[in-house]
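The aim of this short unit is practical: by the end, you should be able to scan a pair of folded records and say something sensible about each. We start with the first protein, listed as its amino acid sequence and then its structure tokens.
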Amino acid sequence: MLLSLAIWVPILAGLLVLACGGDRNAPMQRSIALAGALLGFLVTIPLYTGFSLANPGMQFVERLAWIPRFNVYYHLGVDGISMLFILLNSFITPLVVIAGWSAIERRVGQYMSAFLIMSGLLNGVFAALDGMLFYVFFEATLIPMFIIIGVWGGANRVYAALKFFLYTLFGSLLMLVALLYLYNKSGGSFAIMDWWKLPLPLGVQLWLFFGLLFAFAVKVPMWPVHTWLPDAHVEAPTGGSVVLAAIMLKLGAYGFVRFSLPILPDASRELAWMMIALSLIAVVYIGLVALVQTDMKKLIAYSSISHMGFVTLGFFIFNAYGVEGALVQMISHGFVSAAMFLCVGVMYDRMHSRNIADYGGVVNTMPKFAALMMLFAMANCGLPGTSGFVGEFMVIMGAMKAGFWLAFAAATTLVFGAAYTLWMYKRVIFGAIANDHVAALSDLNPRETLVLGALAIAVLFMGVYPLPFTEVMHASVHDLLRHVALPKY
């Protein structure tokens, strides 16, 4: 019942907001949206408090007949891997609602409802244990994000929204073919856990791996199918960028853990060299691309691609440090990228510019903001004591077990991350006041302080005491690695 509540509470709240009419009822719509988002977060907390750490299998399982003729079930459950993402998503949603409180002035109800509905759909992706149910939720998340970018985005919003939609849809169609093959091969079962036991020959696994790879690689996004992301981020409103970076990019990486590694273990080991190479290109090359950006949102977008390269690297070195580090990095990236985009949104709301050159000396007029942004910039660099360090350090330790030069190449992300993040921070925040617009800036209001403060606490807590995050996933990760290590052909 808890997982159904996590999915349907935000969706029903979103529909209720829509039912409230037009912008004349905006105050009521905002209040209902916030109440729905907070309730959506509260119903996910028992998932953590009631979770059995020793059990590597699925917990809180729900199963109802949906389309019995084709053996399609409304089948939900979480393990130590997926549960944390539901909590992360439900934590980010109220912050997005609060962040858009006064920034969005037209079509307020539609804006708020799009985020609430998307929050429920994203929880559905992480909880689905039926292949068809997973696909429905996976595809349905595209619709609210497409609307958010296309309606409330910047000047090139329609181009960015279409590019985002077409890239992700094309990859997903190949995934559908792979899922239907697995359905037929398993004797007409869409149960993902049944697919884990299929004895597939290596040749078939390789074809299926590439079918799934396109869907998941576009979502991560991995190099070279990453080009839609900077466009989507630049044109999306602040809330859209936050959810896109903090949650939606995790769907692709989650797909590798839930589908590619356990269902296709032999193909995963066979093609690990390719996945590691693509991941290292993302870490190094995209890090260099981030260095030359003049738009703050674009810089953070490329930074996201580089950090997600770390995640896929961790998955395909097949040891506990690497996989757990990659999962921790996903959670940390959710906090840090959300905070960085919200920081850009705070400045954009005041000056309507994202260009680094238009700023300078912001610390003189916005000292509270400068202090919080410094914390998030340091976390983006991977500074010890922040959440950004924990996952990256674990992945580098895992890579060291696989080979010194692999770890060395992976560690360059710490250098590049520091270079582009601190370069941006120095240009925007420090120095003399650059112009009259910066001189007129006002510091954070209570609502902005609440949102950034909540993320600051999350970043510091995870950096200083990561055990509550790692102990939950430990049993499930070891079970996954045991499964991947067994030859299936």
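Turning to the second protein, read its sequence before its tokens, just as you did above.
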Amino acid sequence: MNNGNSFVYCIKSAGHVISYPWTRFQEKAPLASYITGRFVTMIALLFLLGFAMFGLMALAPGDVVDQMMTQQILSSADGKASGAAGSKAGTTFSADQMAAMRAEYGLDKPFYMQYFKWLDRVVVHHDLGVSLVSRAPVWFLIKSRLVNSVVLNLISLVFITAFSFLLGIYFSSKVGTNIDIAATFFALFFHAFPGILLLILLQLFASVTGLFPVTAYPDFPFSYAPGRFTFSYAYHVFLPLLASFLGGVGGTMRMIRATMLDQMGMPYIMALRARGISEKRVYLNHAFRNTLNPYITGSANLLASLFSGSLVLEIIFAYPGIGRLMYEAVLQEDINLVLANSMFISALVLVGMVVSDILLAVVDPRIRYGKV
């Protein structure tokens, strides 16, 4: 019996010794320990996501070598149709050549071995690899596309946030009036309207009227003429941003409006009014601050939805963003390019969630991250 108690005591003591440094870190820096834990969780989630992506791509019929073979067959058919049979464009791969190409790309190995080889290259050598189709470095391909997508989505997020708060606070003060009913109707209408259909209608409008370009990006680079590029870029992305704004502002505005109405019915608002504080201060200095919590919580999901929605936008308006690049990579089964794009978007969402949790602690003194 004593030996058993001693054994249990040793286990508890060992557990205390092992957990003591982390417990001490939590007590001294609760927010820093929370952020550290979230980043460890984020790394684990990214690892599982990459594993799942490799598995799903392995389940898809064919591979990048088959895609190249199909392109060669189509080129051969076009060459024969144009009287160019026997040209270099019409050559096809033999079975041995296809097997050699699969071995060169590592596609002859199980997907989990391909994944761990990719992880070793990325983590140890800081190399995202090369595209299996174009043979260009993956980072070179996504660098410019990444900047374009981030700029487009950040502009959309700023406009949606600013107008959602302005309209939500304004219409919460006009609750029950005709203008509030009309605003609620249009917010629900555009929130429920299919985004892809709205983009197509706006592109048809641009094509028929000629008032706006049907593409969403200028035909010259930023380095050529920075000032001219800025104005041309704003002109080209106006309609895509309008579609993104109409689709996102409705739901966010109604959330802000509902939160403001909920806060205005709280006892502390009645106490503030009883003290003679002006209605403007009650709205902006007190009720408005408490509407930030639900928005900050949902901002990470809003950013993720913008990036997922920009995929359709980039395809329809020929915008050179990372969503369109990923769409083309999935069609070509270019696993290196697909994984790099998906990892970036997933990391962006997870980092956004961590940042939203930190901002919650900043704006709301009641929220503290630490041991209870």
